[in-house]
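Lecture notes, part 5. Sequence design as translation. It can be helpful to think of inverse folding as translation between two languages: the language of shapes and the language of residues. The source text, in structure tokens, appears below.
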């Protein structure tokens, strides 16, 4: 059985093409100019007509003085010359008013067409930068985000729009570059342990006389590498979740997760003998509890890992200028001020090789930066003169209910 097709309905276009006319901004501005001119002209002609029609017909005319009233003259039935002159003036004014309306209507029609034509030209000239911006924006793709509109001219609304679009392109270019670097660094970080594991397995399998102890040792080393990969992938997922934004905001006291973090052992994460100190006061914020806990844990782990034997880590929570704040300070190697801006980028390590043998994933502080941005918090890092860092996180003040 043959299937009948329904006739297609004409697609509706949001630009007003249903009637065959493209209602562009230029056309609408032109019609607006013409309508405004027509309405203004009609009002002007109406006012002029009412002023002229409201004057008496003999206004400004020298009428002859009528003769003195007397019984003799009145009895003779002599016509009054002023009355006849008034009637002629009234008829003459009526003709002038008709001529005025006709001439004014013709002049108004011609001037309306002229205003529409001039409005079309002026609207096109005023909208020319927008067309140029539209063509340039269509030509920009992900491969040439360095291009900018760069609209010339005075500092008007169109130039403000172009500058805002250029600023958006700056942000997009930075985001694309950061994404490319992140993908390249993540690929390198994941490829290195895979290559190491494959080499271990190939060397072990190539030895036909390998003992069970050697095979067990190889498996343990591969398992340890796999565990580190799992932690890295979990960190990448946390970073992606933080950059996506918050799904919920509930009250969180910074002192509680900070105290819990200080109570956990950190001896395996850094050099021996690192002391943990806390000065914890209540500091309520509105945020995601797991992410806030991860922020504090990453800061403390980073402070312990990048430390010196017998060093110290101090954690402070409380209110700073009315805002809930977190401070994590550690002793450690000196950090140059020029290096501070790189520590919050993924896979950036200030020290390529350390004597303690504890090498981090290079993504902990980037997770801290993403979580802080998701909570609209201010994040600052300041190198200390004696060595180490102090990282400050100032959260927005919690709204009072």
């Amino acid at each position: 059985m043959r299937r009948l097709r329904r006739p297609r309905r004409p697609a509706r276009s949001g630009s007003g093409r249903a009637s065959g006319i493209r209602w562009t901004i230029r056309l609408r501005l032109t019609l607006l100019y013409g309508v405004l001119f027509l309405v203004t002209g009609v009002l002007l002609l109406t006012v002029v007509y009412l002023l002229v029609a409201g004057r008496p017909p003999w206004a400004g005319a020298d009428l002859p003085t009528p003769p003195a009233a007397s019984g003799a003259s009145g009895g003779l039935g002599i016509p009054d010359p002023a009355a006849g002159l008034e009637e002629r003036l009234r008829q003459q004014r009526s003709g002038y008013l008709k001529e005025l309306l006709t001439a004014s209507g013709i002049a108004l029609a011609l001037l309306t067409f002229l205003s529409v034509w001039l409005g079309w030209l002026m609207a096109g000239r005023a909208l020319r930068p927008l067309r140029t911006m539209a063509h340039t924006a269509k030509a920009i793709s992900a491969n040439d985000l360095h291009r900018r509109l760069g609209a010339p001219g005075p500092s008007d609304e169109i130039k403000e729009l172009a500058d805002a679009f250029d600023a958006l392109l700056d942000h997009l270019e930075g985001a694309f570059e950061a994404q490319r670097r992140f993908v390249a660094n993540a690929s390198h970080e994941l490829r290195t342990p895979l290559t190491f594991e494959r080499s271990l397995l190939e060397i072990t399998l190539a030895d036909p006389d390998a003992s069970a102890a050697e095979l067990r040792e190889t498996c343990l080393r591969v398992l340890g590498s796999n565990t580190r990969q799992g932690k890295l992938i979990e960190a990448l997922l946390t970073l992606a979740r933080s950059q996506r934004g918050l799904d919920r905001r509930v009250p969180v006291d910074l002192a509680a997760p900070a105290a819990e973090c200080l109570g956990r052992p950190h001896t395996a994460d850094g050099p021996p003998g690192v002391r943990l100190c806390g000065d914890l006061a209540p500091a309520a914020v509105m945020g995601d509890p797991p992410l806030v806990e991860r922020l504090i844990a990453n800061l403390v782990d980073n402070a312990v890992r990048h430390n010196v034997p017998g060093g110290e880590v101090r954690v402070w929570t409380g209110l700073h200028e009315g805002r809930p704040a977190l401070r994590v300070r550690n002793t450690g190697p000196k950090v140059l001020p020029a290096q501070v801006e790189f520590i919050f980028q993924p896979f950036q390590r200030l020290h390529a090789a350390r004597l303690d043998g504890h090498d981090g994933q290079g993504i902990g502080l980037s997770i801290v930066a993403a979580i802080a941005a998701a909570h609209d918090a201010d994040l600052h890092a300041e190198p200390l003169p004696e060595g180490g860092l102090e990282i400050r996180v100032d959260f927005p003040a919690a709204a009072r209910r």
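The translated text above is only one of many valid answers, since several sequences can fold into similar shapes. Helices lie at 25-54, 71-76, 81-139, 157-206, 212-244, 255-263, 289-305, 364-374.
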